[in-house]
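Continuing the series of single-chain predictions for the mutant panel. This is the parent chain; the variants come on the following pages.
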Amino acid sequence: MDRLAGRAAEGPLALARRQGRRAEPFAKFATVAGKLGGDCLIQVAWQGTQAVGAAISLHTAGTAIGWRLYADRSLPARYRLTEVLIAESLRHACEAGCQYLEMGESGGKEDLAGLKSRYGGRAFPLAEYHYERIPLSPARAAFASARKRAKEFVVARTSRH
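Parent structure:
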């Protein structure tokens, strides 16, 4: 119980970072970069001494794959950091002789899909399969559904008053 209390006390940002590190450990990126060498392009956007965005592209046989992209959402929208990172990934893919840049999944986000389409991206249907050692997906889906219903209930109750 004390361990859970300690996690709650550290705040949502720290908890999100911890979950992110567990889901996407640095060692995974270091291993890919080490194995692919020059076929792994890592671009980092800086504001002063602070990294504010990054894009990782993997290159092979005339195709580049936009593997990961992160942009600090707290920066002003006028910087268009996501667009800059996509444009730079596309420029590098062209300079490397690639015929295609696979921009990755849009995760059902219309604004991200729209952004990619402005760079010539087209949506393709994708079947995705997961293997879980412990089947947690049904539990996560049930939790998300219950959370949504609870939020709707609270919103409905507060809007009446």
